[in-house]
Amino acid sequence: MRHRIAGRRLSRTSAHRLAMRRNLACALFERETISTTLQKAKEVKAFTEKLISLAKKGTLPARRRAIALLGNRNIINYEDGRAVKKGTIIGKLFSEIGPRYLDRAGGYTRIIHLALKRLGDNGQLVLLQLVGQEQTQKKSDKKSSREKT
What we know:
alpha+beta; CATH 3.90.1030.10; 3-stranded antiparallel beta sheet; two-stranded antiparallel ribbon; 5 helices; globular
């Protein structure tokens, strides 16, 4: 019986679930929007919201706790065929994402259902994104449209 055992199994071992949750959270913090299945998005949503709440505190113990839960992976971008380090996931979480939500009590992520189904198993695809990300994107689009004219 599974009494008082929280979370979905997702047909994976416990180590695989932990690694998948960390990878999805890192991808979300790095790109601020990801496409995944509905069940995976629901599973990682609570984990990312707890990490953002830690980032809002901004203290050294909170940073150490986030590193213990998530790891401290580098953010790498490819420019002119070369890999360039742009910082770390924890650095971005505590310097950009955490301060963005200081006035917000919760609900830092949203799940948007897509009409697409995954090719292999017909799984429901969704977008998992950080709330408030589209406002910065619209501002940059307005700036770029003004520069074009």
